[in-house]
Known about the structure:
Helix content is 48%, strand content 7%. By secondary structure, the protein is of the alpha/beta class.
Amino acid sequence: MFTTTYRPKKIQDFIGNRHLIQPFIEWLLEWDANDKKKKCAIISGVCGIGKSLFVELILEKHDYNIIELALDDDRDKDYMSNIIKPLLRTKKTVKDQENVLVVSDIDCSSDYGFIASLTECIKDTKIPIICICDNRYDQSIKPILNYCVDFKMTKPCYQDIYRVIYNIVITEKIKIKETEIKEMFEQSNGDIRFILNNLQFGSRNSKKNIQSSNIFDTTCNLLSMDETIYNKYETFWLSNDLHPLMIHENYINNTLSARDEVKKLDNLAYSADALSDVDLFETYVHMINWEFEPHVAFNTIRAASKCNKKCMVKFPQFLGRISTMYKNKRGKLNYEDVQFFEKENPKVKKAVEPKPKKEVKSKAKKTAEPKTKK
């Protein structure tokens, strides 16, 4: 894979954002546990720009031990308190390496107690903490910003990308025009992995981009038998995070019809098997690295190879159920917070409670009951 073969081995070979290297190294080497406003560094930038690689290369250069907290870890309150917090008090390893906590995708967490727990960890830490996110202005990460030093990564310029591609083209003997390189650069939105994968698999003559196509049109292209595998591969990258879910939702209704029921079941099984491989490779993508992303693409295309678009394409119901689940979870959390607040502040609770309405006495005179003689 080009993403592995041509991965920078040292920070001097990193593509773009060279102006951030020295300030980040100075923050790391001058880190002080008593400086409350600089206990954490936040690295932000668009997906695929190389944020994790930037951090990894610098930490490897200065021989730090990386404690990684990824998106797939159980980042709830108990995990942060019982597992992560004790590690933050250990400054060095047995091999005399200084520890650093690297937290990935802090703006993508679905646990609403994660940021609060992370903030407490930053306050009490005895080792540097580095947080990585795509959107630095996400409201969910606002509580930690008072303790962070900002390192905003920008998209690499065309000249930087061109130098890398030129070396790959010469080494791999690839025939490509400079206009095609410019097209890939414009479509990539700063995602260097996208460029390397397209360069390796030959998807260079793209005339579409994500702004000119919606998810339903691109899914129809993946389900169509009229499209070539190269066009489908090119289409997949227009929305690589949603296309596997879209195919999973629609492959049954668009499976090739056959008179023989056994043949039709074989087609369904073939697509289901390919989608199972997609789930497996996506797990590796999030847990290990992005090398497996092309395998996700090809297995998604393989799942659609036994299909042909013949009915309306539907949006994944799975996403709707997840949205409803989190909405209900937020409502439950708010209700429990109110109950806890009322228990801790009974006076406030009494002040908030509405006064009972006075009973209106009836003006009608009650008839006196006759007294019984004893």
